[in-house]
Structure formats: C-alpha cells, structure tokens
Model the fold of this input.
Amino acid sequence: MATIRRRALLPALILGLSWPSAALFAVTLFADGFESGTLCAWNATLGGECTCFDSGLAQARPLVKPAPGQLEIGEWLPQPVLAPETLAEWFEVRALAAVDLNGLQAGATVLGGTPLLAYGGTCLRLDPLGDSWALFARNAESGQNGSLPAVDAVFSFSLANASGQLQVGVDGVLLDSRSWSASSSGRSIMIDSTGAQCDAPAGVTSYNGVDIGTPGALNSPPDCGGGGPGTCFDVDLGASRAVVSPAPGQLVINEWMPDPALVADASGEWFEVRALAAVDLNGLQVGTAVLNPTPVVPSSGTCLHLEAGSHALLARSAGVDNGGLPPVDATFAFSLVNSNGTLRIGVADVELDAKSWTASTSSRSIMIDSDGSQCTSPDGVATYNGTDRGTPRTANTPPECP
Done:
C-alpha cells in the first residue's frame, strides 16, 4: 500500500471526512498525482464521484460536468494590440446551465489532453442565473496581458489570425467549436444574442483603451449587424449597412476539389466562388441535390464582401488538417463526391449557379477556364501543397482547358 503523505491527508480531513474515508481519500489523491494538482478523487463518502471543494458549502461535492449544449464559446480575441498576442490573446465561455468548469479542455484543431482547470481543488461554478462567464487568457497578469479582468485559467496554444479554430470540451467530449476565416486587429470576434458571429461591432467599448471587446462579460447589445434584418457590419466603415446580395449571373462556382490526395476527402475537399459584380456572401447557401436552408455565411454578422473578379474559398475544414489551403472564408459539411456529383450555390433559396461532373481525378481540381470550359486542371497548373493541383482562392488560368 502507498504511503499516506500528510499533505495529501490534510485536505481530506479539512473536508470533514471520517478517518477511514480520509485515509482512502488521501491514498487516492496521492495515486492520482495530488502534487501536480490532479484532484479527481474517488471515495465512498461522496459516492465515488469526481469532486471539487465548494467554498460556499465549505465541503467537497460531486462535480457537475457540462454536457453538449450547456457551455458555449462566447467571444475571443486573436489579434490584441496593446500587448503581444503571446500574452494577451483570450477567449470566454458562457454557461447555459449551472455547471462546474473543473476538467475543462481547450484547443485549436483538437482538444488539449491536460485540462485548463484541474479536477478537484476549488469548484469553478458558472450559473446562468448569476456569474455565467469565465475568461481564459495566455497570461493571467493584468500588467502583461493588456489589462484584462480577472482570468480564470491560462492556455498555451495560439488563436490564429486567419483560418482559425477554437474548441472546448470535457473528458474528450466536444462541447462547442468556433471557426473564423479572418480577424481584425484590436477587435474581438463575438457571438451575439441571436447566435450570429461577427467582429465586435460599433458600440462595443474598449476594455483597455485600445482593444475592443467584452472579456468575461455580456457581449451585446449591440448585436451583430445592429441595423436589423438584411444588414451586416462593415469593418471598413465601422458601421452596419445593407447586405448586397448577389443576383443570378453575379456569383459563380469557379473550381472544386472532390478528391484531394495529401489529406482525406473529409478534411481536404474545397470549392471556390468568383464574383462577377461587387457583392456580399452573407446568407450564401450551398448544397448538392438541393440548397441547404442554413447559410454557410451568416446572414448578419460581419460583411463578407467580394469585389468583381475576386474569389472566396469554402472548404470542409478551416484548420491545419485541410491540406495547406489558403485562408478559408466558410466551411461546409457535405461531401463532394468523386463521380456523378453536383454542387450548387444560392441566396434566399434562389439558385445562383450549379456545376456537375461525371468523374474526377485524384489530386486535381475541376476548373472553369476563361471561356467557360470545364475540365480537370491541366498540366501547368501548380500544386498548392506539393501534391494537389489547383488554384484555390485565386484565378484559374492560364493555362486554359485543352
């Protein structure tokens, strides 16, 4: 039997456990790595549950772990200005039910194995009827992290400025995930009261005199696209404006990759659209047999604008697992089948363009050239990752289709 150390026994006695239970509790703490802060104790007195110390009750109690739908990422800042990104990046989570955050994991493309908050210890309780927000940052010192309010825990990974992803979970179970194609310097990305995602709009104040955001606090009002239905927030204007939706003939599917070779199809498939007029992609719908009613670009939120002749990239993944794609503007969940496939785009259930193919070639995109011909990317088209040929998010030609 392991030796019971006094520093492991003391917390058990403080929690008011009787001597036999205290001894078992202490042995469990020691075996679980008490000295490293891992306090997920299994003991008969508390019914074999993972526990934390509730300072309000002055005793240990079972953890209330969040389930999917009970905790969401509410806001994050990839590009702080007042202090370096390695010290001042942050994100917040919001509780939709009364839960404890002990054991919470976070990561970019995958959940980190080591929790941001150790099991056991003092319970970090969030309650939507009271304190419902928690703040996580690269550094907990206010003098170094850009004058953030009190930080609940620190994280070590980076929030990418473009094509970024952030996810949180418990015990390896994903609770929420957010992605973004771009970010603005000194301005957080937030989820508003309607669920729309955008750069913090005009009216959100600075928390340190430079950086705009509401770390660890309610995000809105104002909401994204605060001008009402049919509006988006224009970062260049610093204000909301009407969405300029494309009409038929103003936005076309220009290139697509059904069968990437460097990574799996489920991670590396993509397609691009080309604007033939100045339009916004807010409200863009995509699909195969039919348009999906849920837009891949939020109808409100930050304006996703394309000038005539420019391109936007939509992909299965915006993370590092997508095979070296350039910045991704939006993601989609369906498959681009290798043969007998169809892809369509639209807005407000009105189809704007559709493309079909009978077959595809591994590692080569299918493209539309300057005269409207469709073909597998010909020799002379460079690879974008050393393996797969195509021109994601850029002009397709030259060369032309044979």
